[in-house]
Write a structure and sequence with these properties.
Family: Belongs to the class I-like SAM-binding methyltransferase superfamily. RsmB/NOP family.
Shape: globular
Radius of gyration: 28 Å
Number of strands: 14
Biased composition (Polar residues): 540-553
Domain SAM-dependent MTase RsmB/NOP-type: 134-491
Helix content: 25-40%
Region (Disordered): 523-599
InterPro entries: MeTrfase_RsmB-F_NOP2_cat, MeTrfase_RsmB-F_NOP2_dom, NSUN5_7_fdxn-like, NSUN5_RCM1_N, RCMT, SAM-dependent_MTases_sf
Oligomer: single chain
CATH architecture of the domain at 231-496: 3-Layer(aba) Sandwich
Length: 599
Amino acid sequence: MSKNSSPYHDAGWLLSEHLQSRRGLKSIAFDSQCKNNNNDRKKAPPDKATYATVCKTMQHLAIINKVLDANNLRKTIGLDSVRNKGLLYVMIYELLFGKYKSIRGGGKIKRMIVKHEKELRRVAEECIATNGGEGRDKDVNFPRYIRVNTLRANVSDVVDKLRGELRSAKDGTISRTQRVDDTNEETDVPLVYVDAHVPDLLVLPPTASSWLHHDCEYVKTGSVVLQDKSSCFSALALARGIGEGAKGDAATSFDYIDACSAPGNKTSHLAALVQSAIDDINRSSKRTRGRTRSTIFAFERSSSRFNILQERMKQLIPSPSEDCAEVAVVPIHDDFLKADPSDPKFANVRAIMLDPSCSGSGIVNSPDRWMEDGYDNKDAKRIQSLSNFQLVALKHAMSFPNVDRIVYSTCSMHDEENEGVVSKALSEVEKSDNGNDWEVMAPVCLDHWPRRGREGGIGGLTKSQADCLIRCDGLDGDETNGFFVSLLVRKNTASECINSRKTIDSAGIPIYKGQFSCSNRTSFAASDSDSKQSTRTDSSEPIQLKSSQGRAQQKNEKSSAKANDKSTKKRDKKLAWKRKQALLKSSRMKKKGERPTAA
């Protein structure tokens, strides 16, 4: 970034670019074409402090706007005349919510703000009190999810390495003595868990993000993928949504299409799941890996994103010469909407994963995504435009003659992009009367996920249809970003399938049951006894821990209470010692005829 006398110049520039272009912060910050104000040279990527300042400002943007709108402060201060809105927001954040509650440096904008400092602070306190004592409207701190890429690594090996990292990382070490399985052995176990819903997905403490990043060895080698839990649902629903496989094919002898594939996380996840199913067949038939049995055609129309997709596939997907992989990924630089369903190349395609562009309103742990809805009144038109595109894409997927299953998903919370699109697609395809009869089906692999779709409303779906849809809500205790998943199948397809889900193989690793949750509420846990309820749109009752884990939790609670009690005793002992020393000093001074000082 370019040098400037203001310590907030780079942060203000980055935020202003986001507000004007509505592009993501990361795409702006690391865009190689990014120019400085003089437009004569490229900017360097921002440092961590700059990026952190922008993110924190974004998290407080809604309440900052409330403060400025109160008592006509925006007009009184003259903020509408400020051209650098990003710098303005950053300075107000620093003054009202920053670590030191002050603005460094100087300049005209600072003078405008400081002139009304008292009023700004008073209104901010009122807004915070009205907002339940929080300086932010939304605050999330999810666990760090990482998916083990089973095409490159073994889950147990990765867990062993991660435990070593957690022991050595100062800000990532969270370990405690807990009971393991049903034995009486007490072991110091770093908190690495397997997810209860997605196979091969590991759950780490939120602090692990400080050292687990894109330069990490495991990530660079393709052993693990940094992927949020809810975004894993798309590939999982497509590969295992109809059960353990259709009769005679086990869902492994046909091809797939990933319609909007970059950057490739979902593509590689789908490849890993299909390869896992093939390996199960190989083990049962005692055969070794051979020729390619399934191909995934990965579409991406953007040139820059297509380049990213190609690099990611080289990193994550072994070539046939490396490991005799029986799943091949073929990146296609083209628009999926232009793909010809009658092309012989796609004759063996029976499944399509469609995760199109959306508003991103469910991404609550990325402030530049979830804050978008509060900027202006253009959102309704934008969402309508997105839903129109999503509907066209879904209907195009339905037009492939041999496709009998489609997963349509978004990271949006808006009904218009979710239930509305699914409902319109079902009704319009049915009206076409060309034999393409489709229906929604509840993914068998996620039958233990409680939150379901919304009936009635914009989509007009029946309750039974809504119960087939999957929703995630990061602001309502799901510990993952907001997401929507629908599995559409041709009628009678479900009846041809084996309706049973594959249980999670934890390989002796404890299953995550909300251990990192900030609340006392236990997260949804997988259990064969879990029953699907009609009220899935509401938060379900917490699932009780199994006996051994329940005892472990009770033991941890007792240990915590004992630790607190020990800390209190230590403090009292120290205060008693100080009082004793003061009395002794007073006594010595009296003997010397001096006047004691107050203790």
